[in-house]
């Protein structure tokens, strides 16, 4: 093909002439740079390459990272991972070779991206998120994404979402809002982890975490300040009570004093809040993760204390009575997973009491079918969305719509194994969820999410709206 034939085939002469005319009209001082940028914008972006690698998450356990290339640049994303996985969530693919990372390496997932997903996506428009996600779902062919791996699919889905935002030249949260049909961005109330227990902490506390919500602040920036100050006051309170060794932290940054009583933990947090002077502006939430200590139909709150375990089981009704007393004695406004994931009867009854927000995490595992059942049976009134449990951005948007249509609250959540990727911050703002749970106000992988929300609030300026007292809406 001759040069002239090449120019004619691709209409390059006309495109260059248009770019030069635009540069003349703009009276630019750097016509070469202007023409270059003009040409780049004139060409629709497509995915040109998808390259994956194995990296380590915040626990030092392998996970998947993806570099997705378009003719606009490189867009990187990584998949988080939980402490455990359930039968109702999308399956992350691991190699299972005990001699390598104790069986946790993700080379098969990486290979699936580099050899299968990449081939399927090259040439696609990155703004077409639902089509990209559907191509991967169809390629996988399983209901739980076990063939390619939810960790592989999610990392690519997030990277494509970032590329789509860049192609449209808008912020990531704005692109997500466009994808979901959401018109008003919303800064969520941060749900800070202060004390860790359960599988998250090396102490005798059965419940997984005690958290705070700065609902009385006027901005997200102020909420972050409240959370940080309370966290540091709590460190002082724990040191005074248990000594410096009591200030060891769990994998999500929460303190792990050697307590076994939930009331002891709540008293510590209450004292710390009192020292901040914020008092009524800060509310408390607890994440129970009751499935971890459910045996049959009974609950063992001493399961982490060898000399007590099995001696004092609580029935579902006992747990309800305990929650009612705790909510009366402390400013608890939200309880996550108060019962076993299959204990639909008691969670439904407890939700009907209207005492507090009842968040379904292990109960529904971000699974659309479980969410639909919970909505029909009024089993809880808030969704805990963990994006790796569902596997794609499109499906995450869909389940949030389901929850909102049911007038539920939505909590966008971290996982125990996190990375520096701050995607869930933009997801929360773009979908206008009222709450985000990203761990303690410490540790880099947690602060990456909170700091990104600071940047978004600054970017939005006068348009920024912090959820605050309307966090249940």
Q: Cα-atom Rg, whole angstroms?
A: 24 Å
CATH architecture of the largest domain: Alpha-Beta Barrel
CATH top level class name of the largest domain: Alpha Beta
Query: How big a fraction of the residues is strand?
Result: 5-15%
Q: CA-to-CA gap between the ends?
A: 63 Å
Query: What about the largest sheet?
Result: 8 strands, mixed, barrel
What brief labels describe this structure?
single chain; alpha/beta; Enolase-like, domain 1; TIM Barrel; 3 domains; 16 helices
Any overview of this molecule?
There is one protein chain. By secondary structure, the chain is of the alpha/beta class. It folds into three domains: 3-42, no CATH class; 47-169, Enolase-like, domain 1 (2-Layer Sandwich); 180-470, Alpha-Beta Barrel (TIM Barrel), CATH 3.20.20. Helix content is 43%, strand content 15%. It has helices at residues 3-9, 12-26, 31-42, 107-121, 129-140, 150-168, 172-180, 220-242, 262-276, 316-329, 344-352, 368-377, 387-390, 393-405, 423-430, 444-460, and strands at residues 47-56, 62-70, 73-78, 189-196, 209-213, 283-287, 294-295, 298-299, 332-336, 357-360, 382-385, 409-413, 435-439. The protein has an eight-stranded mixed β-barrel with strand order 4-5-6-9-10-11-12-13, surrounded by seven helices. The chain has a three-stranded antiparallel beta sheet with strand order 1-2-3, covered by helices on one side. The model has no long low-confidence stretch (mean pLDDT 93).
